[in-house]
Amino acid sequence: MSDIPPVSLPLPKLPNEVLLGIFHLVDASTILNACCTSRYWRVKLNSYEFVSIVAESVEDGIFCIRYSSMGRKSYMLAWNPISRRSKIIQDLVCVFKPDMVYLYAFMYYPYTLDYAIMHVFKHSSESTTCTLAIYTSFTRDCHVVMTCPPYVQTIDATYVTLDMCIYWVTYSHEDVERTKPYIVCFSILSNTFQQIFVLEQALARCYMLMIFNQKLCLAASDHDEKVFHISIWNVHVIEEDPTWTRLFMYNGIGSLFTPTMFVDEDIIEIKERHFQIEGADESHFSHFHICRYTPMNDTRRTLHWIEYEDQVRLRLLHVYYETIYPV
């Protein structure tokens, strides 16, 4: 061994466009190793300028994440944070090359360790119908590609899965005022769709699908800057004519923006406020209250307060249970 100490050389501070252009061409593991090299590289490689990460869903303790580098190179990632195992999946956007990026749905087959990733998209903005593609872990490719019925629109971020079916709320193209919502149901076993119109008494401004005691529920919310009113409906899905039953309703002070979800017997909801201060420097602030409401004893409690010095939207919530499911 040499007694001569190693020479420490400063890392070159390359221009952003050069640095990000180089790392755009390398694989994900190299990028992760580079993040450990210096604080400067870590900040740059974790910036929104370089990478965009969207958590599509969480099922059985597995996160399904879509990330892209500089808006061009994108991947899907299945990740178990407990086992720290992950698997990179080719992004379906790179396969079908639509002119826009659409959301995905992620779900497990019951009593198995296999999962499916569902993608509903339009090849172009002028397309009149959507296309459905399904990637499965046991085939490792898109074994189902089919044209959707005319009423099927792209997946909403607040979709839910139940009994091998995927549900999401949407509107037709003709409904510009968004006054006639309906639920789209897709069975991954039979590869069939079903359209479920929202009951007239349940019509509101915002909607959120939830699962409560293994039953499909819809939270319908009317709100303004001061108060909100929410009704929770159980939707019993049958082929002939789905039945609707209102479970309960409640009111509150303050504006409420769904997402809302059930956790055990409680409802977890987000109260959202946005402020804009005009002056020499225009500023935006976002405040969020994460609240728990227990309908059984009619109690409500604030669990957490979040504040951002920017205009931020929280689009959805997930329930996470630790598992050792493989990816």
From TrEMBL:
Pfam annotation, one family: F-box-like
Signal peptide (UniProt feature, chain positions): none
InterPro entries in the record: F-box-assoc_interact_dom, F-box-like_dom_sf, F-box_dom, SCF_F-box_component
Top-level taxon of the source organism: Eukaryota
Sequence ranges assigned to domain F-box in this UniProt record: 8-54
Gene3D superfamilies, per database record: 1.20.1280.50
NCBIfam families reported for this sequence: F_box_assoc_1
Protein name: F-box domain-containing protein
